[in-house]
Amino acid sequence: MPEGPARPQRELEAWRARSVLIEQTNQDGNGHRLPQCGIGGAASAAVRPFFPDGYRARRRSRNTLHMAKRKPVTFPAKTGGGYDLMEAALAGSDSQFKSGNIVKGTIIAIRGNEVLVDIGYKAEGIVSAGEFKDIEEIKVGDEYDVLLVNLERDDGMVELSKAKADEKLRWEALLEKYTEGCTLNGLVTGRVRGGLIVNVDGIEAFLPGSQLDVDPVHDVEPFINQTLEFKLIKISHERRNLILSRRELLEDRMADQKRDLLASIQIGQHRTGRVKNITDFGAFIDLTGLDGLLHITDMSWGRVKHPSEVVKVGEELEVVILDVDLARERVSLGLKQIQPNPWDGVEDRYPVGSRLRGKVVNLVPYGAFVEIEPGIEGLVHVSEFSWTKRVTRASDMLAVGDEVDVVVLSISGAEQKIALGIRQTEANPWDTVQDRYPVGSRVKGKVRNFTSYGAFVEIEDGIDGMIHVSDMSWTRKINHPSEMIQKGHEVEAVVIEIDPANQRISLGLKQASDDPWHTITSRYAIGQVVKGKVSKIASFGAFVELEEGVDGLVHISQISDERVEKVKDALKIGQEVEARIVRIDRDDRRIGLSIRAMNMSEGEIESLSKELSQTDLKPGENLVGLAAAFDDAFAQSEEWQPGAGKEDEE
Q1: 412, 345, 402, 353: which is closest to 378 by C-alpha?
Q2: What letter would DSSP give residue 27?
Q3: Going by C-beta distance under 8 Å and a sequence separation of 6 or more, which residues neighbour residue 88?
Q4: What is the helix (H) or strand (E) element at residue 251, kind and residue range?
């Protein structure tokens, strides 16, 4: 307690008040004094709060002893006058001083880290100096709102809190000002786990991270120390906490904006929007309430590989409304439609046959796209790259960024297509190929490539001729060109046919040498005895090589006078045999041999030869006789290659 005259002076005033109260409470309604019984009774109860604790204790013990000796006295009811006023005042005083209540207090002393406050109670209160913003600024006599924490500490003092009083007053003021669902402003002061702290009129509120914005926010730093508008979604009275949402506020406003936008939007309108998001296929534009899709094909009249080449996130754009789907709430936007269409009048600017210079902007397997002006591209197909070279991939001839000369082959402004050609910028060597290589002329070239049906021979740079397998040998049946020639080898051939329109030249390898079958009758005659080696065995007979490229067939019936079941049992490949020629067919390139005829007379041989020459059959006749047998055997041997040396077993 403070020293000096303050305490005696207060005690004196308390004693004076006691006397007045005792006098008033011991009178009846007419002002007459009532019988006294010490300081007990109603008067004692009325003035008890104004007496020091020590005094009350002493009086209580004496009154108890005195009242034990006296008979109980019944007092009439006290009503009216000052008694009622004092009773109301005392009742109000008792209800005011309760823990948790806020009372007015006056600073009476500053003592170290404690501030003594007079709250009009029987004892002074103490507030921690740390609860004041600046202890140097407060002084004796200043008045503050304080909260009763503890009415009687162990040292008899009252524990007070200015900070709790301020917080309670702010909370109560906030509840009067805001309700759940209302809109308020707050300062984002910091981040905590799961969200942000927002200061609302001095009260810390919680903003969940998911409620910060409509879209997920990965970096909240830009929001710190920003005053924003929020929606109050929950008030926690127990924890004195507020739950806020900025997302719901934005969604509510966006819903209103979307409704207004859909009610007024029309195809063809020009609208301003902000680029919200970019994808591989386009960009989403915020039209203030609704997102519209700006497809990559509607960004520019020219080629766009990725939307990021044209737009950036956050960029403001003017776009055209291309389509509106009210049921699905979808809007299609266009950016290139703001500019004139470069394809308008393109046929007049670039007529067919005109020669242009452009830049390669894209390569695909089947050709190259060449830009001849911004927004106008034409396709050069791989077949239009060269007159003479066979181009399989455009990348083999060109690269993106190359500048090339082209000729317009066809154009369609409606379909926005232009066909271009590169080879048309040069003379076509096929137009004069007949002059350089007339039919029947001999040419030399290098074998460049094989196919299953022939070989391609390069006779000059970019000009190839083809040798079909049927034109490789006079005497052998060729199944694959590798049987006669090799890649990279130089060969001599004869020009058989030229087709400039289709860019084809047919060559013949065998035509470069004499046909041995043209003079076959001058070297061989029927009945002539010949020698040769067995080159192939088949189920129907054996082939005997008479000279290079000329084979004769010994039918199974002409091997021996005895019946032969299997050719391989009588003859072996490589075996040298002697036989007579019994048949010669120069047109069909066939020679028939007979080993049996070696022992025949000239008459028998002549008879056998006549029989082999009668190959015509009448309708209904079976294929019988030696001539038919030879024809059947030759027919079965069409797939055989003379000199192959393989045995065909049954």
Answers
A1: 412
A2: B
A3: none
A4: helix 247-264
CA distances from 61 to 40, 67, 81, 303 (A): 11, 10, 31, 107
Is the pLDDT reported for residue 73 higher than 80?
Answer: no
Instruction: Kindly list the structural domains of the chain, giving each domain's residue range(s) and its CATH number in brackets, ordered by start.
Output: 7-96 (no CATH), 102-168 (2.40.50.140), 181-250 (2.40.50.140), 268-337 (2.40.50.140), 346-425 (2.40.50.140), 429-512 (2.40.50.140), 519-636 (2.40.50.140)
User: Is residue 647 very low, low, confident or very high in pLDDT (cuts 50, 70, 90)?
Assistant: very low
Between the CA of residue 124 and those of 7, 92, 112, 421, what are the distances in Å? Answer: 11, 19, 16, 105
Confidence band, pLDDT 50/70/90 cuts, at residue 55: very low
Residue 125's φ and ψ, nearest 5 degrees, are: -110, 160
What are the pLDDT digits (tens) for 223-255? 999 999 999 988 888 777 888 999 988 888 888
d(CA 373, CA 606): 87
CA 538 to chain centre: 67
Q: What is the DSSP string of 529-589?
A: EEEEEEEEEETTEEEEEEETTEEEEEEGGGS-SS--S-HHHH--TT-EEEEEEEEEETTTT
pLDDT per position as a tens digit, 498-544 = 998 888 999 998 888 877 777 787 888 888 888 999 988 888 899 99
With a CB cutoff of 8 Å and minimum separation 6, the contacts of 409 are: 352, 384, 419, 420, 421, 424
Tell me the DSSP string of 107-149.
EEEEETTEEEEE-SSSS-EEEEGGGSS-TTT--TT-EEEEEEE
Give Cα separations from 540 to 394, 536, 537, 556, 559 (angstroms).
55, 11, 8, 6, 11
Average pLDDT over residues 37-49: 41
Confidence of residue 344 (pLDDT cuts 50, 70, 90): confident
pLDDT of residue 76 exceeding 90: no
pTM flag (> 0.70): no
pLDDT at 378: 93
User: Are 406 and 396 within 8 A, CB to CB?
Assistant: no
- Match 């077993």 to its residue by tokens: 649
**How far, in Å, are 3, 131, 447 from residue 115 at the CA level?**
15, 10, 113
